[in-house]
Each structure stands twice: as C-alpha cells, then as structure tokens.
Amino acid sequence: MSLREVAAEAYRESLPVLALSAVGGLFAGVVLGGMEAELRAVSGLLVLVPALLATRGNVYGSLGGRLGSALHQGLIEPTFSFDDERVNAAVAAALANGVLVSGVAAVMAVALLVALGRPVAPLGTLVAIALLAGIVSGLLLTVAVVSVVFVGYRRGLNPDTLAGPVVTTTGDVVGVATMLGATRLVLALGGG
Amino acid sequence: MTDFDAQWSVPGIVRTMFPILLVLTAIELGSGLVLDTFEGTLLRYPSLLVLVPVTIGMAGNLGSVLAARLSTAFHLGLLSFEATDDRLAGNALATVGLAVTIFPLVGAGAWGVQTALGGTALPLPTVVLVALLSGSLLAVLAIVVTAVTTYAAYRFGLDPDDVVIPVVTNVCDVLGVVVLFGAVRLLV
C-alpha cells in the first residue's frame, strides 16, 4: 500500500470512533463546566479529575478486553447470570481495583497538595468523594461493558472493537457525573 | 493454584492490575496538578473547563488508535521502524488529519453548549483556536510517544498490545492537559 492509501484507510476507519468519543467527552465537559461551585467548594477536587477519569478507562476497558478474549476462547458464555465464576471474578476484581485505586488517588492528591503548600480540602472529604464516585461509576460501567460485550458478541460483532469505544464514550460522562453527585452528597452531609 | 486459575481469580487479577493502576494514577495526578495551577483561569472561562475532559480523552484516543494499528501491523510483520516506512508515515499522517478534523469541531461544540447553557466569556474563534492548536500539537506528540513506546516494546521483546496502549493513553492524557495549559496561556 502506498503512503496515501495507508493514511486514507487509517483516517476512514478511525474517524467514527474518535467522533463518538469526542461527543462523549463534550458531554463530560458540560457536566464539569457545571461543577464550578463544587470545584470552588472542595479544593483539590480538580486534581483528582484526570486520575479518576483515567482509572475508569483503565479498569473497565481492561474488563471489556478480558471478557472479549474469554468469549473468543470459549471460556465464558455470553449469558447474563450470576452463576459464571469467571465473569463474577472478573467483575469483582474490576470493582475492587476501581474503588481501591480511587481512594488511593485521593490520599495521594491530598499528600501532594499539602507537600506543595497548596490549599486542599480535608482528607476525609476527598476520600469519601473518590470512594463514593468509584463505587457508583463502577457499577454503572460494569453494566454497560458487560451488556455491550455480550449483546454485541451474540449479534456477531467483535467484542474487542466494541469495549474500547463504549468505555471511552461512557467512561468520562459517568466518571464526571458520579464525581458531581458524590461531591454534592458529601457536601450536603457536612463534609468540605 | 495454576496459572490459569490465577488469571481468573479476584486476588490474581487485582495483584496483576493494581500496581499498574497505581503507577498510572501517579502519572495522572501530575496532570491534575497542572489543572490545579490554572484552576483560576478555568473557573473564569467555563468553556475552557468544558474542553478539559474531551482534550484529555482525545489525546489518549489518538495515541491508542495509532498504537493499536501499529502493533497489529507489527504482529503481521508489516512494520519496520524507519522514517521511510509507508505504514508508519501513513498512520502518522492520518493521526494529524484526524486531529485537525476533530479538534476545531470539539472547540466549536464546547463553545456552543456553554453559550446555550450558561453564557460564555470567550469569543468563538478563541475557543476554536485553542482547540485546534492543542489538537495539532497533541497529534505530533501522540505520534512520537507511540512510535517510541512501540519501538521500545519491540526492542525489549514485549508484546506491544500489553504495554503500549496503557502507557500511550496515560502519557497522552497528561500531555493533553499540559498542551491545553500552554495553548490557553498563549491565546487567552
């Protein structure tokens, strides 16, 4: 293939997925843009945004990849039940990783900001927000990833190419929206 | 416990993934600190705040799409690491093309939704220009990071599928914030 053909093919194949994730990213941005008040109220919350969004992508993208490979290998069946030990283990491990690493991210963010002498909300507030957002977004993204991968596979689509775009489009929106919800709840309960 | 069982046990999966996640989180906190540094500007101009997740996400996506294509080409034995390699150059060209197509639209979209929802303090051309400048720079950086990481994986005998995508996605995330910061400093 010539240079022009390679470039044209790569462009054509990638544009739809990237456009879709741009739309998802814009939705996430709208939610973040509406979070001004919460970002002002909880110093250090903005520091957590990239880490928490990336965690969603890393953890649930990898869950999608794992389920996709297992379907290809015939290790799991694309049926929704709670009997499959492998699916249960993969989901439980993803949730544990997602929630744990969110909490650790909050602790690390507070430590960094204190070390740099920058203003930061109490440790308990940020950890509570991170854990709460981690649990709720984890449950929502698990449902999204498992449904899309299983339903897609049953319809003859390649789960490998489905999981990535689903996580990149829904991950940011769900990630920011659950951070907003968690922050409001924690502030309402007296944190901050 | 056999290797196979460990791959599908909760402690097994957590043990494999958690250390990687910690490293990636530490990298991402770096970009969080950059955001914190220009929090004042972001809160004054919410249309820039709207651009944050999409710029971060698109930077990582451009890198990961390129990484996936290069590692497939590599597995098929179609890739050589030379500047004259058509597959490498063609994919790099497509990455720039994709960035130049999508980022101005993203800028206009961010401005549009913010105007509809809360009113904007910045004119449309400024937001589009911030997005276009960030996107073009990010495309070039994504190409460099992806090519270097794929080459490193190949030299160290690692499967590019396992290593390159997480590294490229998260490094590009951080670069996304840094480049956005630079473009805002320059243009706003």
Automatic annotation (TrEMBL), chain A:
Membrane topology: Multi-pass membrane protein
SUPFAM superfamilies: MgtE membrane domain-like
SLC41A/MgtE integral membrane domain sequence ranges: 49-181
Cellular location(s): Membrane
Assigned keywords, A-Z: Ion transport, Magnesium, Membrane, Transmembrane, Transmembrane helix, Transport
GO CC annotations on file: membrane
PANTHER family noted in UniProt: DIVALENT CATION TRANSPORTER SOLUTE CARRIER FAMILY 41, SLC41A_MGTE INTEGRAL MEMBRANE DOMAIN-CONTAINING PROTEIN
Family that this chain belongs to: Belongs to the SLC41A transporter family.
Protein name: Magnesium transporter
Automatic annotation (TrEMBL), chain B:
Cellular compartments annotated: Membrane
MF GO annotations: monoatomic cation transmembrane transporter activity
Membrane topology classification: Multi-pass membrane protein
Regions that span the bilayer: 12-35, 47-68, 88-112, 124-151, 163-187
A GO term from the CC aspect: membrane
Pfam families documented for this protein: MgtE
Major location category of this protein: membrane
Keyword Transport carried by entry: yes
Keyword check for Iron-sulfur: no
Key words of the record: Ion transport, Magnesium, Membrane, Transmembrane, Transmembrane helix, Transport
Cited InterPro entries: SLC41_membr_dom (IPR006667), SLC41_membr_dom_sf (IPR036739), SLC41A1-3 (IPR045349)
Residue ranges occupied by any SLC41A/MgtE integral membrane domain in the UniProt entry: 52-182
Superkingdom classification of source: Archaea
UniProt family annotation: Belongs to the SLC41A transporter family.
Protein name according to UniProt: Magnesium transporter
